[in-house]
Amino acid sequence: MRRFLGTLIGAGLILYGVGTLLSHTLFGDPRDEQRAIATAEQYVTTYYPHIEVSAVHAGLQIWGSDAYVVTFASQTSEDTQFDVVVNGDGAIINDYYDDVLSGTVTFNRLHAEYHPLVETALRSLPFDYELYEEVLTIYEGEGSAEEALDPATLILDHPYDIKQIGRDHGSLVIWIEGEDATAQHASERMRDVKRVLDEADVPFRTLLISIQDGNKSFYSGRVNAEDIDQEGLVERLQRNHKEWMEME
Q1: What is the mean pLDDT of residues 30-52?
Q2: I want to staple 183 with a disulfide (CB 3.0 to 4.6 A). Which of 45, 77, 152, 237 is the partner?
Q3: Confidence band of 62 (pLDDT split at 50, 70, 90)
Q4: Helix (H) / strand (E) containing 246
Q5: Which helix (H) or strand (E) holds 208?
Q6: DSSP 8-class letter at 152
Q7: What is the CB neighbour count within 10 angstroms for residue 103?
Q8: pTM (2 decimals)?
Q9: Where are the beta strands (DSSP E) in 19-148?
Q10: Domains and CATH numbers, the chain
Q11: What is the rounded distance in angstroms from the CA atom of residue 213 to the CA atom of residue 180?
Q12: What is the mean pLDDT of residues 53-79?
Protein backbone atom coordinates (compact mmCIF):
# COMPACT_ATOMS: atom_id res chain seq x y z
CA MET A 1 0.00 0.00 0.00
CA ARG A 2 2.80 2.37 0.91
CA ARG A 3 4.55 1.55 -2.35
CA PHE A 4 1.33 2.26 -4.25
CA LEU A 5 0.85 5.59 -2.49
CA GLY A 6 4.47 6.50 -3.13
CA THR A 7 4.03 5.73 -6.82
CA LEU A 8 0.92 7.93 -6.98
CA ILE A 9 2.65 10.81 -5.22
CA GLY A 10 5.69 10.47 -7.47
CA ALA A 11 3.54 10.43 -10.60
CA GLY A 12 1.64 13.47 -9.34
CA LEU A 13 4.84 15.38 -8.74
CA ILE A 14 6.08 14.50 -12.21
CA LEU A 15 2.82 15.63 -13.78
CA TYR A 16 2.91 18.84 -11.76
CA GLY A 17 6.48 19.51 -12.83
CA VAL A 18 5.73 18.81 -16.49
CA GLY A 19 2.60 20.99 -16.32
CA THR A 20 4.51 23.85 -14.72
CA LEU A 21 7.30 23.60 -17.27
CA LEU A 22 4.81 23.50 -20.13
CA SER A 23 2.90 26.47 -18.69
CA HIS A 24 6.08 28.52 -18.35
CA THR A 25 7.15 27.59 -21.88
CA LEU A 26 3.84 28.57 -23.43
CA PHE A 27 2.75 31.46 -21.22
CA GLY A 28 5.91 32.54 -19.44
CA ASP A 29 7.09 32.51 -15.86
CA PRO A 30 5.21 35.09 -13.72
CA ARG A 31 8.51 36.11 -12.14
CA ASP A 32 10.06 36.78 -15.55
CA GLU A 33 6.97 38.73 -16.52
CA GLN A 34 7.25 40.96 -13.46
CA ARG A 35 10.95 41.58 -14.19
CA ALA A 36 10.07 42.51 -17.78
CA ILE A 37 7.41 44.95 -16.56
CA ALA A 38 9.84 46.58 -14.12
CA THR A 39 12.50 46.88 -16.85
CA ALA A 40 10.02 48.38 -19.31
CA GLU A 41 8.72 50.83 -16.71
CA GLN A 42 12.25 52.03 -15.97
CA TYR A 43 12.93 52.39 -19.70
CA VAL A 44 9.79 54.47 -20.27
CA THR A 45 10.52 56.67 -17.26
CA THR A 46 14.04 57.31 -18.55
CA TYR A 47 13.32 57.93 -22.22
CA TYR A 48 9.79 59.36 -22.12
CA PRO A 49 9.64 61.40 -18.89
CA HIS A 50 7.16 63.85 -20.45
CA ILE A 51 4.30 61.32 -20.69
CA GLU A 52 2.22 59.77 -17.92
CA VAL A 53 1.55 56.14 -18.70
CA SER A 54 1.38 52.87 -16.81
CA ALA A 55 1.82 49.22 -17.76
CA VAL A 56 -1.62 47.73 -18.43
CA HIS A 57 -0.70 44.34 -19.90
CA ALA A 58 2.25 42.01 -20.39
CA GLY A 59 2.72 38.68 -22.13
CA LEU A 60 5.11 36.60 -24.17
CA GLN A 61 5.85 37.98 -27.61
CA ILE A 62 5.23 34.51 -29.04
CA TRP A 63 4.71 31.15 -27.36
CA GLY A 64 7.96 29.62 -26.24
CA SER A 65 10.04 32.79 -26.56
CA ASP A 66 11.77 34.58 -23.69
CA ALA A 67 10.72 38.05 -24.86
CA TYR A 68 7.82 39.91 -23.26
CA VAL A 69 5.60 42.60 -24.74
CA VAL A 70 4.61 45.19 -22.16
CA THR A 71 1.77 47.52 -23.14
CA PHE A 72 1.62 51.04 -21.74
CA ALA A 73 -1.39 53.34 -21.80
CA SER A 74 -2.37 56.75 -20.53
CA GLN A 75 -5.46 57.38 -18.40
CA THR A 76 -5.89 60.85 -19.91
CA SER A 77 -5.00 60.24 -23.58
CA GLU A 78 -6.81 57.46 -25.43
CA ASP A 79 -4.31 57.60 -28.30
CA THR A 80 -1.24 57.32 -26.07
CA GLN A 81 -0.69 53.59 -25.91
CA PHE A 82 2.29 51.61 -27.13
CA ASP A 83 4.31 48.44 -26.56
CA VAL A 84 7.82 47.91 -25.23
CA VAL A 85 9.49 44.56 -25.98
CA VAL A 86 11.93 43.15 -23.40
CA ASN A 87 14.02 40.02 -23.94
CA GLY A 88 14.90 37.40 -21.34
CA ASP A 89 18.18 39.16 -20.48
CA GLY A 90 16.35 42.36 -19.60
CA ALA A 91 17.41 44.22 -22.75
CA ILE A 92 14.94 46.40 -24.63
CA ILE A 93 14.42 44.92 -28.09
CA ASN A 94 12.06 47.58 -29.37
CA ASP A 95 9.50 50.16 -28.41
CA TYR A 96 6.60 51.45 -30.44
CA TYR A 97 6.10 54.94 -29.07
CA ASP A 98 6.62 56.19 -32.64
CA ASP A 99 3.19 54.72 -33.43
CA VAL A 100 1.75 57.39 -31.14
CA LEU A 101 3.75 60.22 -32.70
CA SER A 102 3.10 59.08 -36.29
CA GLY A 103 -0.68 59.00 -35.85
CA THR A 104 -0.87 55.23 -36.31
CA VAL A 105 -2.59 54.70 -32.94
CA THR A 106 -5.14 57.39 -33.81
CA PHE A 107 -5.71 55.73 -37.20
CA ASN A 108 -6.28 52.40 -35.47
CA ARG A 109 -8.78 54.02 -33.11
CA LEU A 110 -10.77 55.42 -36.02
CA HIS A 111 -10.67 52.08 -37.80
CA ALA A 112 -11.93 50.35 -34.65
CA GLU A 113 -14.83 52.83 -34.49
CA TYR A 114 -15.78 52.63 -38.16
CA HIS A 115 -15.53 48.87 -38.72
CA PRO A 116 -18.44 47.82 -36.46
CA LEU A 117 -20.69 50.44 -38.06
CA VAL A 118 -20.09 48.86 -41.46
CA GLU A 119 -20.24 45.30 -40.14
CA THR A 120 -23.57 45.86 -38.38
CA ALA A 121 -25.18 47.58 -41.38
CA LEU A 122 -24.17 44.80 -43.76
CA ARG A 123 -25.88 42.11 -41.67
CA SER A 124 -29.17 42.94 -43.37
CA LEU A 125 -27.84 41.95 -46.79
CA PRO A 126 -29.92 39.16 -48.37
CA PHE A 127 -26.89 37.11 -49.45
CA ASP A 128 -23.75 35.55 -48.01
CA TYR A 129 -20.56 37.59 -48.18
CA GLU A 130 -17.23 38.27 -46.52
CA LEU A 131 -16.14 41.77 -45.59
CA TYR A 132 -12.41 42.47 -45.85
CA GLU A 133 -11.11 43.34 -42.39
CA GLU A 134 -9.57 46.67 -43.39
CA VAL A 135 -12.32 49.24 -43.96
CA LEU A 136 -9.98 52.24 -43.89
CA THR A 137 -6.93 52.25 -46.16
CA ILE A 138 -3.74 53.65 -44.67
CA TYR A 139 -1.71 56.07 -46.79
CA GLU A 140 1.69 54.57 -47.58
CA GLY A 141 3.12 57.15 -49.94
CA GLU A 142 2.95 57.56 -53.70
CA GLY A 143 0.71 54.98 -55.31
CA SER A 144 -1.72 54.78 -52.40
CA ALA A 145 -5.43 54.75 -53.18
CA GLU A 146 -7.01 58.20 -53.43
CA GLU A 147 -9.23 57.47 -50.42
CA ALA A 148 -6.29 56.43 -48.24
CA LEU A 149 -6.04 58.17 -44.87
CA ASP A 150 -2.63 59.56 -43.90
CA PRO A 151 -1.98 59.01 -40.17
CA ALA A 152 0.42 61.97 -40.21
CA THR A 153 -2.55 64.29 -40.74
CA LEU A 154 -4.40 63.06 -37.66
CA ILE A 155 -4.50 64.90 -34.35
CA LEU A 156 -3.86 62.98 -31.14
CA ASP A 157 -7.08 62.36 -29.17
CA HIS A 158 -9.16 64.51 -31.54
CA PRO A 159 -12.88 63.63 -31.41
CA TYR A 160 -13.33 62.96 -35.13
CA ASP A 161 -16.75 62.56 -36.71
CA ILE A 162 -16.46 58.88 -37.62
CA LYS A 163 -19.15 59.13 -40.28
CA GLN A 164 -17.25 61.93 -42.00
CA ILE A 165 -14.11 59.80 -41.81
CA GLY A 166 -16.05 57.00 -43.49
CA ARG A 167 -17.43 59.34 -46.14
CA ASP A 168 -13.95 60.59 -47.01
CA HIS A 169 -11.90 57.44 -46.50
CA GLY A 170 -14.12 54.37 -46.11
CA SER A 171 -12.77 51.70 -48.46
CA LEU A 172 -14.89 48.54 -48.49
CA VAL A 173 -14.06 45.23 -50.14
CA ILE A 174 -16.62 42.42 -50.25
CA TRP A 175 -16.17 38.84 -51.46
CA ILE A 176 -19.06 36.72 -52.70
CA GLU A 177 -18.89 33.04 -53.63
CA GLY A 178 -21.20 30.86 -55.68
CA GLU A 179 -23.03 33.63 -57.52
CA ASP A 180 -22.92 34.83 -61.13
CA ALA A 181 -19.47 36.25 -61.80
CA THR A 182 -20.68 38.90 -64.24
CA ALA A 183 -20.66 42.66 -64.43
CA GLN A 184 -24.46 42.72 -64.33
CA HIS A 185 -24.65 40.68 -61.13
CA ALA A 186 -21.79 42.59 -59.53
CA SER A 187 -23.60 45.86 -60.22
CA GLU A 188 -26.74 44.50 -58.54
CA ARG A 189 -24.82 43.37 -55.49
CA MET A 190 -22.96 46.68 -55.35
CA ARG A 191 -26.28 48.54 -55.24
CA ASP A 192 -27.56 46.15 -52.57
CA VAL A 193 -24.54 46.99 -50.41
CA LYS A 194 -24.94 50.72 -50.93
CA ARG A 195 -28.66 50.50 -50.14
CA VAL A 196 -28.19 48.85 -46.72
CA LEU A 197 -25.35 51.23 -45.83
CA ASP A 198 -27.45 54.24 -46.83
CA GLU A 199 -30.39 52.94 -44.80
CA ALA A 200 -28.12 52.59 -41.77
CA ASP A 201 -26.58 56.02 -42.39
CA VAL A 202 -23.08 54.58 -42.71
CA PRO A 203 -21.24 56.53 -45.41
CA PHE A 204 -18.26 55.21 -47.36
CA ARG A 205 -15.93 56.43 -50.10
CA THR A 206 -15.33 53.40 -52.33
CA LEU A 207 -16.64 49.87 -52.76
CA LEU A 208 -15.12 46.85 -54.47
CA ILE A 209 -17.00 43.61 -55.14
CA SER A 210 -15.23 40.35 -55.96
CA ILE A 211 -17.31 37.34 -57.03
CA GLN A 212 -16.04 33.78 -57.35
CA ASP A 213 -18.21 31.18 -59.10
CA GLY A 214 -16.26 27.97 -59.46
CA ASN A 215 -13.40 28.67 -61.85
CA LYS A 216 -14.95 31.94 -62.98
CA SER A 217 -14.36 35.22 -61.16
CA PHE A 218 -15.32 38.85 -61.50
CA TYR A 219 -13.50 41.86 -60.06
CA SER A 220 -15.40 45.15 -60.03
CA GLY A 221 -12.55 47.48 -59.18
CA ARG A 222 -13.09 50.34 -56.75
CA VAL A 223 -16.14 52.49 -57.44
CA ASN A 224 -16.95 55.75 -55.64
CA ALA A 225 -20.15 55.69 -53.62
CA GLU A 226 -21.77 58.48 -55.64
CA ASP A 227 -21.21 56.58 -58.90
CA ILE A 228 -22.89 53.34 -57.87
CA ASP A 229 -26.45 54.50 -58.62
CA GLN A 230 -25.48 56.21 -61.86
CA GLU A 231 -26.27 54.85 -65.32
CA GLY A 232 -23.52 52.93 -67.06
CA LEU A 233 -22.37 51.08 -63.93
CA VAL A 234 -22.39 47.68 -65.67
CA GLU A 235 -20.20 48.97 -68.48
CA ARG A 236 -17.83 50.59 -66.02
CA LEU A 237 -17.46 47.39 -64.03
CA GLN A 238 -16.82 45.46 -67.23
CA ARG A 239 -14.02 47.86 -68.14
CA ASN A 240 -12.54 47.61 -64.65
CA HIS A 241 -12.60 43.83 -64.83
CA LYS A 242 -10.99 43.81 -68.26
CA GLU A 243 -8.18 46.09 -67.06
CA TRP A 244 -7.65 43.86 -64.03
CA MET A 245 -7.46 40.75 -66.21
CA GLU A 246 -4.92 42.40 -68.49
CA MET A 247 -2.70 43.10 -65.47
CA GLU A 248 -2.82 39.48 -64.28
Answers
A1: 96
A2: 237
A3: confident
A4: helix 233-247
A5: strand 206-213
A6: G
A7: 20
A8: 0.84
A9: 54-60, 68-73, 81-86, 92-95, 130-131
A10: 22-100 (3.10.450), 104-247 (no CATH)
A11: 6
A12: 93
